[in-house]
Amino acid sequence: MRLTGRLGLFWLVVLVLPPAVALLALPPFGQRMVVLIGIYALMGLGYQLVFGQFGGLNLAQGALFGLGAYGAALAAPLYGPGALVVAILAAALPAALVAVPLLRLQSHYFALATLALASLVNLLAVHAENWTGGANGLAGFATALPRGPVLLSIVWLCLIACVLLYAQVFRGPLGETARLVREAPLVAATLGIDGARWRLVAFVVGGALAGLAGAFSAVLSGVVSPEATGFGGMVLCLTLVVLGGARHPMGAVVGAALAVCLPELLRDLQGAWLLAYAVATLAVVLWAPEGLCGLVDRLRGETVVPVAPPGLPDVLPAVGGPKTLVLEGVGKRFGGVEALSDVSLWLDRGMVLGLIGPNGSGKTTLLNVINGLERADAGLIALDKRRIERLSTAAIARAGIGRTFQSLALAGDSKRADLARAVASGAPFLLLDEPAAGAGDRERHELVDIIRRLRDAGRGVLIVDHDIELLSRVCDRMVCLERGHVIAAGRPVDVRADPRVRASFLGLDGLAA
Amino acid sequence: MAYALVALGFVLALNAAGAVNFAHGDLVVLGGAVAVFIGAWLGLPSVLLLPLVAITIGVVGILAARVAILPLATRPPEATFVATIALAAIIEQSLTVAMAGAPRTVPALAGSGTVEIAGVMLGRQPVAIVVLGIVLVVAVWFLLERTQTGRRMRAVAADRHMARAVGIPVGRYVTLSLALAGALAGIAGFLLGHQFLVTPTQGSGHMLKAYIAVALGGWGSVPGALLGALGIGLFETFVATRFGDVWASAALYIAVLVVLALRPQGLFGEPAGRRA
What we know:
The structure holds two protein chains of two kinds.
Chain A: H1 9-25, H2 28-53, H3 61-79, H4 83-99, H5 107-127, H6 129-132, E1 138-139, H7 148-171, H8 173-183, H9 185-190, H10 195-221, E2 223-224, H11 231-244, H12 251-265, H13 272-287, H14 291-299, E3 324-334, E4 337-348, E5 352-356, H15 363-370, E6 378-383, E7 386-387, H16 393-399, E8 401-403, H17 415-424, E9 429-433, H18 441-456, E10 460-464, H19 468-474, E11 477-482, E12 485-490, H20 492-497, H21 499-512
Parallel strand pairs in A: 5-10, 5-11, 8-9, 9-10
Antiparallel strand pairs in A: 1-2, 3-4, 3-6, 6-7, 11-12
Helix pairs in contact in A: 1-2, 1-7, 2-7, 2-10, 2-11, 2-12, 3-4, 3-5, 3-10, 3-11, 4-10, 11-12, 11-13, 11-14
Chain B: H1 2-17, H2 24-42, H3 46-69, H4 77-100, H5 105-121, H6 125-146, H7 148-158, H8 160-165, H9 170-195, H10 203-217, H11 222-243, H12 245-262
Helix pairs in contact in B: 1-6, 1-7, 1-9, 1-10, 1-11, 2-3, 2-4, 2-5, 2-9, 2-10, 3-9, 6-7, 7-9, 10-11, 11-12
């Protein structure tokens, strides 16, 4: 993934420069600003995990920051520096507690749930006066904690370590996983990636970072007030991440630097700096969606190295796993429309099954039901003896069913890549939805070759296509669907000779040709 | 009832834009502020002031559509989220700056405006709000269900690709929906401005209430949003009278989390399907 490549020398210098200059040359006031940059950047980096990488619109990061601040303030008199650990837990535990039951929520519900959590935290901060000091906040707790240059060093060491770790981790397969979860959740699920679980992990780890940042901020300012948990902090966090670059390892750092320095630069405008900041954010969303860091990379000529189009290896390794996929009496209704009715079929490994039928006969719905994108209303689906019709798509994929899609979900994707992904998942059974659609003669030949190699490697292939000639060449068996019913099944020659198939499908085909 | 208007505008904008409009609450506040400013400036009676506010905020809604929603139509909904959050911050900060020009006098202005207008209403304010609210809801219902324009708006909301395929100028109808949403927000802000003072930071609160109403009522459902808003109003009033405002808010947020965990499609189902 291009924006998450390992940090180059340029960014490394940018990252290390502020604390170095601050320690060597800046007066205490300047040092304080640099610490603040570090704090915001930590919070923002945590936010990048869940928002930038996994696409979850988390609106509680500001509140988690506040929880960390309160946690540190309350624990500091008791545990000294151990309060930092308390702060991390104070943010991460509530995050986990709330997020677990809300794992499956779609984007806008996730946003609302985190917003409700944030509002609760804010309410608590203002009104639980015995604990939080109410609107006055807490003060006088920071004496036991490091301050000045020591604090600066600790904050920036944490930040540098986290940025490097982030760059390293998201450069690898995790970056690709995140991209799939974010941009093509269905593809991710069919590859066995549980997006919701990743988002939970990102939310909790990001929350922990927010808590740590909150604790540092409590130490820096010496007071904690309910404002720390308010919506303003959340907006600041979101905008700084967007402004800097939601996925770029340095995005949060650059955004935080702007957020801290702008008010100083625009001091004459007083309150208007936040206005300028919001306008800048809107401009970035509209014209530079990759953020300022991405923009800088572009201007520096850091062009993306195009990845060679993926292909399949010459020799496909044999796979193990379940031996048979069986469907019995599967039915599916959409309102009054019976999309599938009493569909039964079986597929062995090392076998190619063709699925034909006119448009709207339920072919894609059948594939969707098999791999759990739709729930069957009736019937059973099993891999060997294991029932899978109630499992999630990701779980079905891990149980051994991969698939390709008719239309591509990822920018810059190709049918070849889609197929390669499904094959590479190692699933013993593959569902291919119109892999030959739009392909030229040469590609069709290649496809036939690939499917034969898949069969020889012991995979079971269920293929949907309109190219009956192609299917006849590669399939061991064929099934014809019409209006959700199986009207013929057997060897390709027999199915093609079936009068009902000729009437409903081949007749039309003949007219079209 | 004012909640219902906020939620109604919110759900219209939501359906048209295909994404949450986080600036909606700030449009409400802007409505209140515009009412305060213009009212103090021109000294208009509320009968004239109200349409003026509605038109002004409607125009702001159009601007919002042009700036933050239409250009992002082809991007994931998160981009629109962020753009409208930025827009919300812009409105809030502008208002803060504008109101800081005359610190402390603005709440008083709102107060005096209320008295002036209440002179006409003569304490019948709540009744007037309810009547006006019902009239507007019926008007919107009529527009959506009984006119060609409304049908097209619903078509755009249901499936914008299909709408475009049958020749509906999608951008124009999205803009129109946002203008309508803005006008409703302006009126709601006007009404709420009587009951409470107008302060720039109220926006996120209004937005949150509307968001909750829509999520509980069923994402994208207009009647669901109205029911959700009324339900929230009743719930808050009920809990607040027994246990106090703080508990009312806390209970509301906890209720939201519980409902989302147990019945994520909303209390009355989700007609709009899976959309952000």
